[in-house]
């Protein structure tokens, strides 16, 4: 078997430099797509909301699972938006999207399947790590969310002394989220649209972030803010999930030009 040829620099998708205000246009474009495919879009949001409710109910008695589950949600969110990317793609082609199009998007290619497995593994490990850290932060036993915030637990000497673990958890979560954002913001929609190797899609994603650091920080901040509002209200996820999913498709098409690679049908 002959080894796969190395990727030539000319084969890498071109990356555009964009203004820091550009993410606002992505949100507007995402809103337009949501309005044009309201039923399909809001159903995606409803499914995610039901998953978030399940995490909340479980976390009410197991706070470590709640903390890890919600932050893990942020890590796998780009994958959850695959169907929304396909809806925006079909709208851009001038075609009315259907559930058949959404199902087609979930018939993952080998590269997209490997990327999905990677994000799922990261999310699972993070939930476990979060549960251990939350448990270690308190020297007093507690049961569920109410018990974790009880005066007895919050005032315990061990909880105060081990507060640095919380800072470590935040730092680790922030770094992991930034890494996942950098490798996936362009990669997942590109793998959906184009027949490209996973390594090239990831490299294109990292290059897009590197070429537009301020713009991508703004975009990441908007994603975090909308997601936080959605998680705080839960019902808000029905709207914010499809809005961000559609907007992320427009971010991809705006950031890179992958037209040299064959289109996936």
TrEMBL record:
- Which UniProt keyword terms apply here? Membrane, Transmembrane, Transmembrane helix
Which residue ranges run through the membrane? Answer: 41-60, 67-87, 115-138, 159-192, 216-241
Q: Which domain of life is it from?
A: Bacteria
Q: Which Pfam family is one of this chain's hits?
A: DUF2189
Give the signal sequence positions. Answer: none
Q: Which residues form a coiled coil?
A: none
Q: What is this protein called?
A: DUF2189 domain-containing protein
